[in-house]
Design brief:
alpha/beta, seven-stranded parallel β-sheet, 23 helices, Haem_Oase-like_multi-hlx, Thiamine_Salvage_TenA, Thiaminase-2/PQQC domain-containing protein, HAD-like_sf
Length: 582
């Protein structure tokens, strides 16, 4: 039985990523490298500097420092382009390097022009910070043939060696232009509603322009051209350099100091003032497949296991039994889907106007209908006996193989460190029938000890399921009662700041009561019910920018439960960047 699998929400990335995906399908090395670095790109977008820049909250001194640090990078790029031009073995590549170097020099001039409009003295010397120094050293050492992590320097004597070092150099330089184009386009997209009021609009417009995108495409095409003649080992080195450059980019943006209070990363910002409590659903929030479907497959699998000493007739009967079990599960799933659809229709009648603001009390009362339905559906499963005979060993084995959503594993592995460093609490709340399946999934990725799991529990006799389970959390109302009890019994002197991550109607009440409710994907039923009762759905980054613009001071708390606003995230990586940072 699979419960309303969510439709994926619109990705955070713009047309830049779509173009890269198309290029990668056509065999582009640059496109493939960029797609592999999407997580790093999201982390850069969620740095305090970028969030404050997007919100229009950067002071002149902060912006001047950024321009000065960026100018250091641009000068290093111009020097590296000049070195690469000297290595190039054909006139076309030499011309491209020359154009790229001229483009960088024009950007340096543009820096001065825009800065003068802001009344910023760009000629004033600024000491490069450690991130800027590391990045420039990485670029120039790569261009000189000294590959980071390699043994000594490459000898740049033969045409072959010159071609190879040119490819390495371009691999290390390409991420800068592509990432800047991506960041500018993301900011440009999210700032449309501000019109011309944003103080950095001209700056953002320049880097979101078609001409800057053309520069990014130009160096990517050059990287593709140079990669054709490389061996697989050499191409792996180019990709390694590309990823190292992306890490330097993140460190660069993370190192830029800001004077105003920032809202990211949430974990660090509120460490001293609040007790952070992070909740997450499990099915289809963490996993790709609903656990009820997984348990059904285990049930079908064990019914088809024939005894090693059995006769052909025995094996034939076992196969018939397997077919019968699958048919029984299909019937249960079909009935569940039909009754769920009827519930949604009764909750959201077509003739009733939607509420303009959050009507939580009415929503809660309506979701009690879902609670009755879910409990009836669970009783049907127990009475069928289909879960009987599943061994704890089978559950653990299958749990270890559960496929998690992209970025989910990294998020919860990081939660282990965050729990120790910031004394935060992490809870999994789920209507899953079998908590052991969840424990096995999280144990396999090394983060079980950091999590508190709240769910239903299989009942066993000698490690074999009886077909029944302890029914603790079966519905939206059960879910929210568990949520409230956890917060009420924290035993902390600090005020709790709660985050709930979910994907379905079963999570809706918790999502709304949490200070920050984040939805993975876009479940059509969740959105339909939410909008009927006045819930607004806002992309996480857009909401963050708006909240950042509202920050009044160090003690300003802009996140609050029952606001009626839920935030949509395209991936666990985005949530990771928002909560934990890079």
């Amino acid at each position: 039985m699979q419960r309303n699998r969510p439709l994926r929400s619109e990705k955070l990335t713009t047309s830049t990523s779509l173009a890269a995906e198309a290029a990668a399908r056509d065999g582009s090395a640059a496109g493939r490298f960029w797609i592999a670095c999407q997580e790093e790109a999201v982390f850069a977008l969620y740095t305090p500097f970028m969030v404050c820049l997007a919100a229009g909250k950067l002071g002149l001194d902060v912006f001047r420092n950024y321009i000065a640090q960026n100018a250091r990078l641009l000068k290093a790029f111009a020097q590296a382009y000049q070195m690469a031009e000297g290595y190039a073995d054909d006139d076309e590549s030499k011309a491209v390097f020359k154009q790229l170097r001229i483009s960088v020099l024009k950007r340096l001039t543009m820096n001065d022009s825009v800065s003068r409009e802001w009344g910023i003295a760009t000629r004033q010397e600024v000491i490069p910070n450690s991130a800027t120094l590391k990045y420039t050293e990485f670029l120039l050492e790569t261009a000189a043939g000294k590959i980071e992590g390699g043994k000594g320097s490459l000898l740049i004597d033969t045409p072959f060696e010159k071609t190879r070092i040119t490819a390495y150099t371009v691999g290390a330089m390409t991420p800068f232009t592509r990432l800047v184009a991506y960041l500018a386009k993301e900011l440009h997209f999210h700032l449309k509603h501000k019109g011309n009021d944003h103080p950095c609009k001209k700056w953002i417009d320049i880097y979101a322009s078609a001409s800057f995108e053309a520069s990014a495409v130009q160096i990517e095409q050059l990287l593709d051209k140079l990669s054709v003649s490389l061996t697989s080992e050499e191409l792996a080195i180019v990709e390694k350099l590309y990823r190292q450059a992306m890490k330097h980019e993140i460190e660069f943006y993370s190192s830029l100091p800001i004077v105003q209070p920032a809202l990211v990363p949430l974990m660090k910002v509120h460490d001293l003032t609040h007790h952070l409590v992070i909740f997450s659903d499990f099915d289809l929030t963490c996993t790709v497949i609903d656990s009820s479907a997984t348990l059904a497959e285990i049930s079908i699998s064990i019914s088809s296991r024939a005894s090693p000493s059995g006769t052909d007739d025995d094996n034939q009967n076992a196969q018939v039994s397997s077919s019968d079990v699958r048919s029984a599960w299909d019937a249960i799933a079909k009935l569940y889907t039909e009754e769920f659809g009827q519930c949604i229709k009764s909750i959201v009648p077509s003739e009733q106007d939607a509420a303009k603001t959050l009507d939580y009390e009415s929503l809660y009362n309506k979701l009690e209908q879902i609670s009755v339905f879910e409990k009836r559906a669970n009783s049907r499963v127990i009475e069928s006996g289909l879960l009987k005979g599943i061994s704890l060993e089978d559950i653990k084995r299958v749990g270890e193989l559960l496929v998690l959503q992209d970025g989910c594993k990294d998020f919860f592995q990081e939660s282990v460190k965050m729990k120790e460093k910031f004394n935060a609490d992490f809870h999994i709340l789920s209507c899953c029938w079998c908590a052991d399946l969840m424990r096995s999934a999280f144990s396999s990725v090394g983060c079980l000890n950091a999590l508190n799991i709240h769910s239903n529990e299989f009942i066993y006799e000698e490690s074999i399921s009886t077909g029944e389970f302890v029914r603790t959390i079966e519905s939206p109302t059960d879910n929210v009662e568990t949520f409230r009890n956890i917060l009420a019994n924290l035993g902390s002197s600090k005020q709790p700041l709660s985050v709930f991550i979910g994907d379905s109607i079963g999570d809706l009440l918790c999502l709304l009561e949490a200070d920050v409710g984040i939805i993975i994907g876009s479940n059509s039923s969740l959105r339909k019910v939410g909008e009927q009762f006045g819930v607004s759905f806002v992309p996480l980054y857009s909401g963050l920018i708006k909240k950042q613009s509202e920050v009044a001071g160090e003690d300003s708390l802009v996140w609050k439960g029952l606001s009626g606003v839920l935030y949509t995230a395209s991936s666990w990586t985005e949530i990771h960047a928002f909560l934990f940072g890079a």
